[in-house]
Write a structure and sequence with these properties.
Blueprint (H helix, E strand, L loop, with lengths): L2 H16 L10 E2 L8 E4 L12 H6 L1 H11 L1 H4 L7 H14 L1 H14 L10 E4 L8 H11 L6 E6 L5 H11 L4 E6 L16 E5 L9 E3 L10 H4 L10 E4 L5 H7 L5 H17 L1
Parallel strand pairs: 2-3, 3-4, 4-5, 5-6, 6-8, 7-8
Antiparallel strand pairs: 1-2
């Protein structure tokens, strides 16, 4: 789909559910099984607010099923529940599309007031476990917020580089000392000139047939790091390695978990372990 088509699709989805709910107080959620409990994350509605979504995304996105389930049953799951991840995601996407001033205020309030179990503001924050940047203005708004929290390390994976205006804003966001942008790709992604990748890290879907250079497989998926919080590779701007991910529904995950690895993959796991030791 074209970016504009996605905007129209996302608006219809958002309208369906936000008119049934009150606004959430904050937009963040503390942790999940992969991130770890100390990582704050802020998300949107998956796929329908992802202008760079590909055919691969439609077939494999881990968040689509959950979002579709929510969208089909808004009354029973979301009504009056202002603490739900999907409730917050819907309003985040709504404000990103229609009211960037409101989004700015809510993000500022979220990051200022949400405290971890020790009473501290977030040390790490991931944007878009689900969803993605919807416009250049959306990215610019997030950048202005991030600039106010220099002690928090932020990161995101994004496919919104498909839009030239958004790519320009992503470059500005990535230049901040506390935000790391990883451009996401898969075998069905459109092409991009190599010079456009300068300064960015890349996230790709692992393919056994491809000879990767300067890349490591996600340590969590190879059982060499329990959580993103303990790994920190994607937060660390000093790490220049690109990240490879396994298809969340692939049999490769079981293969990696059991460490029954081919020589090439075993070497990648060794790189993960060595790099983890160098950054911890």
């Amino acid at each position: 789909m074209k970016v504009e088509t996605f905007k129209q699709s996302g608006t219809l989805i958002i309208d369906t559910i936000t008119d049934k709910m009150k606004e959430p107080e904050v937009l963040g959620i503390w942790g999940n099984e992969k991130l770890g409990g100390g990582v704050l994350h802020i998300s949107g509605i998956a796929y329908h607010t992802c202008p760079g979504a590909t055919d691969w995304c439609k077939a494999h996105c881990y968040a689509i099923y959950s979002n579709r389930k929510i969208l089909l049953m808004p009354d029973t799951i979301l009504d009056k529940n202002d603490k739900s991840l999907y409730h917050k995601a819907a309003f985040y996407s709504l404000w990103a599309a229609r009211d960037l001033d409101k989004l700015y205020d809510k993000l500022m309030y979220t990051l200022s007031t949400m405290k971890d179990q020790y009473g501290h503001q977030a040390k790490m924050c991931r944007f878009h476990v689900d969803g993605d940047f919807q416009s250049a203005g959306h990215i610019s708004t997030v950048r202005k917020v991030v600039e106010q929290f220099p002690k928090t390390a932020f990161y995101c994976y994004t496919r919104s580089w498909v839009d030239k205006a958004m790519l320009r804003e992503l470059r500005k966001l990535n230049k901040l000392p506390n935000f790391k942008v990883l451009l996401s790709f898969d075998d069905t992604s459109p092409g991009i000139e190599k010079r456009e990748l300068k300064g960015f890290s890349v996230a790709n879907i692992y393919n056994e047939q491809v000879d990767y250079t300067n890349s490591i497989v996600c340590p969590n998926q190879t059982s060499t790091a329990d959580t993103c919080m303990t790994c920190k590779l994607c937060f660390n701007k000093e790490v220049k390695k690109d990240i490879l991910f396994l298809d969340h529904r692939s049999s490769l995950i079981k293969k990696f978990k059991n460490l029954k690895l081919s020589g090439k993959v075993r070497e990648l796991v060794k790189q993960v372990q060595e790099l983890n030791r160098s950054v911890t």
